[in-house]
């Protein structure tokens, strides 16, 4: 099964984005850090590439103009309905294009991309803004079910520099950390 089919099936069957998004401790850690970046770097527009069921959007600073996309059309339809009354929250299908934003984010996505060509396509989409925030594991492992860990730092474009790495204090729940890059 490919990545798109796995996630469309999961959402069609009533599933959600998983523990990384719906665990209270991880959710608070991630959203607090993202909101701190919004303040620190005066972020006014954010592109979430791999927004899943949109759960994290609930607590995102509401001054930020948010665009979410996902490989799962089912999740985008869910998010469009869920956030239809919030004008600064927009959801688009993965193949739609977006004007430049202040920051592009990837939260718990990289290790869920199984196909190499989709991984390359994803990184090309991700590294298009002045700031890029990634929350992911950063080691190679064998692909299984819907997880394929990669040492993604080996694939970061040379014109981006790591400006901050924040370690996840909940390693028992997730092996991912935050990596903030700037052009």
Structural features, described:
The chain has 183 residues and is an alpha/beta fold. Helices cover 28% and strands 21% of the residues. The chain has five helices and seven strands; from the N terminus they run αααββαββαβββ. It has helices at 3-12, 19-22, 24-40, 73-82, 116-126, and strands spanning 45-49, 65-70, 89-93, 103-107, 131-136, 161-166, 177-182. Strands 3-2-1-4-5-7-6 form a seven-stranded mixed sheet, sandwiched between helices. The longest helix has 17 residues, at 24-40. The chain is globular, with a radius of gyration of 15 Å. The chain starts with a helix and ends with a strand. The mean pLDDT is 94.
């Amino acid at each position: 099964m490919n990545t798109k089919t796995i996630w469309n099936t999961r959402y069609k069957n009533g599933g959600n984005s998983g523990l990384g998004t719906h665990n209270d401790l991880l959710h608070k850690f991630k959203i607090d850090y993202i909101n701190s970046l919004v303040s620190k770097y005066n972020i006014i527009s954010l592109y979430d590439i791999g927004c899943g069921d949109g759960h994290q959007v609930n607590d995102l600073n509401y001054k930020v103009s948010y665009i979410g996309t996902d490989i799962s059309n089912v999740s985008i339809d869910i998010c469009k309905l869920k956030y239809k009354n919030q004008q600064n929250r927009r959801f688009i299908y993965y193949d739609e294009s977006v004007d430049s934003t202040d920051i592009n984010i990837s939260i718990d996505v990289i290790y869920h991309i199984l196909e190499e060509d989709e991984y390359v396509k994803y990184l090309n989409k991700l590294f298009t803004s002045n700031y890029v925030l990634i929350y992911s594991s950063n080691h190679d492992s064998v692909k299984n079910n819907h997880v394929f860990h990669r040492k993604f730092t080996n694939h970061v474009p040379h014109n981006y520099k790591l400006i901050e790495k924040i370690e996840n204090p909940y390693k028992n729940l997730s092996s991912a950390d935050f990596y903030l890059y700037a052009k």
